[in-house]
Amino acid sequence: MVAAASPALAQRPTLLRSLGFLLLALLVMGLASCARLPMEPIKGDNRPHPGVNRARALPIQGVDISRYQGKVDFERLRAGGAHFVFIKATEGADYVDPNFAANWRAARAAGLPRAAYHFMYWCSFASEQAKWFMQNVPNDPDALPPILDVEWNNHSQNCTKRLSRDEAFAKVELMLEAMERYTGKLPIIYTDMTFHRDVLAGRNLPNTYWLRSVAAEPYRRYDKDDFTFWQWTQTGTMPGVRGEVDRNAFYGSPDDWTVFLLTGCDPRALPILGPGGRCNSMK
User: Which one of 5, 208, 241, 279 is CB 3.0 to 4.6 Å from 263, fit for a cystine?
Assistant: First the structure.
């Protein structure tokens, strides 16, 4: 006759199963935690985020630069895979990036499509900023459309106020109109999630958007506005640039990029903007 198992022994399989489930749960939680940590450096990005993996696969890549990148070797930059460069030109009504003129000439000499951008300063009149931009940025026929960089001046010690939604948008509109009159090209708007939410969302502007989103695809961060350019990392690396640099991607195919180069307009907007004469080849 086989002796009956003790209660402790009878409970052992159940206890083991419970411990197994607990260990599995802890393992899953640990893996999820690791997934949230920055990935190891990869070619082209020192701190890659998995949320922007699609950006790396887009065929048309570029960078944006200012004085912080020092002297850039644009020949190497182009040979290393850059298709365009956005160059800081002016800020407010009295500042010119000290490297702008040299960067502008060198990018052109290297055959790299380039655009100049103006950083909006909320404590200066928009009319004065527009005049300053026109005084310092050449109206070169071969340049890409100008860029208006609009974000709150959070790091400024001299301009901490925030305008109302309508006050800020009035300045944006005036600046965009002045830049378009000066260059004959529909300006690109650069912005981040906060300023877009506070001021630009729902405006249905005809302008091309260059959107910052370094942890997710833009459609997850910006309500209903498509991007034409996507700033997908601020820890990028590229041949010809010392240190880290912002990297950007164009949304479409090489054929779409050719259309943009010829017209200055997002190809998806051509049926609407072209007949109105706001795209270069349609004027």
Answer: 279
Mean per-residue pLDDT of the chain: 88
Alpha-helix runs per DSSP H in the chain: 7-36, 53-57, 74-79, 100-109, 126-136, 165-183, 193-195, 254-263, 270-273
Active site residue 45: no
> Active site residue: 91, 151, 192, 266, which one?
151
Q: Which two tokens stand for residue 44?
A: 């082209």
CA separation, residue 98 to residues 102, 144, 151, 246, 261 (Å): 8, 21, 22, 19, 27
pLDDT tens, 171-222?
Answer: 999 999 999 999 999 999 999 999 999 999 999 999 999 999 999 999 999 9
Rounded to whole angstroms, how far apart are CA atoms 40 and 22? 29
- Tell me, yes or no, if 97 is annotated catalytic: no
Q: Report all structural domains of the chain as residue ranges with CATH numbers, in order of start.
A: 57-282 (3.20.20.80)
Tell me whether residue 142 is one of the annotated catalytic residues: no
Instruction: Summarize the confidence of residues 91-111 as an average pLDDT.
Output: 98
The pTM of this model reads: 0.86
Phi, psi (deg, nearest 5) at residue 246: -65, 135
Distance CA 108, CA 244 (A): 22
Higher pLDDT, 157 or 3: 157
Q: What are phi and psi of 45, to 5 degrees?
A: -160, 125
Which listed residue (149, 192, 246, 266) is catalytic?
A: 149
